[in-house]
Amino acid sequence: MGTLTLRFGCKLASAVVLVLMLAQEARAGGAADFYSGRTLTVLVGHSVGGGYDLYARMLARFLGRHIPGQPGVIVQNMPGAGGLRLTNYLYSVAPKDGSVIATFSRSIPILPLLAPPASFDATKLNWLGSMSGDTSLCLTSGKSAIRTWQDMLSKPVVMGGQSSGADSDIYARLYKNVLHAQIKLVSGYPGTNDITLAMERGEVDGICGLSWGTLKIAHPGWLRDGSVNFLLQAALKKDPELPGVPLALDIVDDPEHKQILYLHFAPQAMGRPFTAPPGIPAERKAALVQAFDDTMQDGEFRAQAAREKMEIDPMPGREIDALLNRLYTTPAGVVAKAASAISD
Fold first, then answer.
1. Which end of the chain has the lower number of beta carbons within 10 A, N or C?
2. What pLDDT does 50 receive?
3. Strand, helix or coil at 281?
4. Under CATH, which number does the domain 136-267 receive?
C-alpha cells in the first residue's frame, strides 16, 4: 500500500510539474506571437540627453533580444511637467496591450500621496524594475559665490527647475522650506540639460536634484576640472564616491523633519524605474518583467554600460511594488507636512 501511494504521489507531482511547464510555455508562446514582428516603444518623460533618456536608450539596445518574439525597440521622448505629462498619458491613454513601456522621474510615483487627488495610481502600474538606484545632488557653477551648504543658509541662491513633478523643483523647495536654504527657484526649463546650460551662462547659480549618475556620464569635464561646487546629497545613505558632500539626512536633528526627508528621498532607491501601463495582459507583463531582469544580467549589456560609465544596480519590479506600498502607509500627519514642504 505504501509503495502504491508513493508511486501515485510521484506520478501526481510529475503531472503537476508538467502542467505548470505547459502553462508557462503557453504563456511564453502567447507573448511571442504578440511581439513577433512588432515594435516595442520606450517612452521617456524627459528631454533628449538627460539621465533618464540615456538609460532608456541603453536598455532599448538590448531589451528586445530577451522578449519572446524579439520585437524591435524604439525610444520616444515625451517631456513635460518633469515627467508628469507622460505618466498621465501612460496611465490613461497609452495602449494597454504591452506594446509601450516608460520611464520618468523617480519622484513621480509618490506625487498622488503628496498631492491628491491625482489622475493616476502608482501602485497599479506594472513595474518592470529599475536599472539602478541613485543620489541627487544640489550643486552650483564654479562661477557662483555659493560654494558650500553653509553659504546656502546665509546667502541668496538662484536654482533652476522644470516643473512641480521634477526632482529639481522638489528638492529646491524641500531645502528651502525644511532646511531653510535661501533658495529662489526659477522653474520652466525643459530639462536638466537646459538648466546646466543656464548655469554656464550665469542665468542661475545651479540646480538641486541633478543625478550623480547622470553627472558622471553627461558632464565628466566638471569632475576633471572641478568646475562645480557640490553642496548637498539626497539619498538614504551617503554615496561612497562623495564622502565630502553632506548628506541631507545627517544635518537634520528633528525626528519629524527626518521623516519628511525620508519620504522624499526613498524613491532614490528606484533611481531609473521602468513601468508598463495598468491592465496589460498577464503573460505580456510576465514576459516584460523577465526580459528586464534578463537584460540586467546580460554580459554584453553590462560591458557596454561599464564602457559608457553607467551604473547598473538593478531593483526588481516586485521590490518597487513593496517600496511604494510601504511609503503609502506613511502616517497622514507626516504626509501632510511632506506635501507642504514642496509647495510654493
1. N
2. 87
3. coil
4. 3.40.190.10
